[in-house]
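Side project, low priority. Logging it here so it doesn't get lost.
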Amino acid sequence: MKKGKGFSDEFIRSLLLTLEQTDFDEYMKLSYAVLMQSPSAVLKRGDSIESKVNAINHMIKFFEEKEEYEKCTNLQKLQQFLYLDVSEDDEDIIN
């Protein structure tokens, strides 16, 4: 199946910013879903490890307050992989 062009990057950023400001719970759920869908893509991003750790810690705190501990555990596992050399396209590293 051929991928279409879809929406522009700017349009998607605008949607996410709007969602973050209007429904933060849904924004965090969506962010979690994206992280868990493609964890290796997150690990391979060019951002500093510190910024990734800070973002994941923020998400863990959010989900702890919601008492969604399975998500916290998955995020902690993802965070541990930040310190490993992930060279494969392993989309199943969390499970």
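Brief comment: The CA atoms of residues 39 and 92 lie 8 Å apart.
Revisit when time allows.
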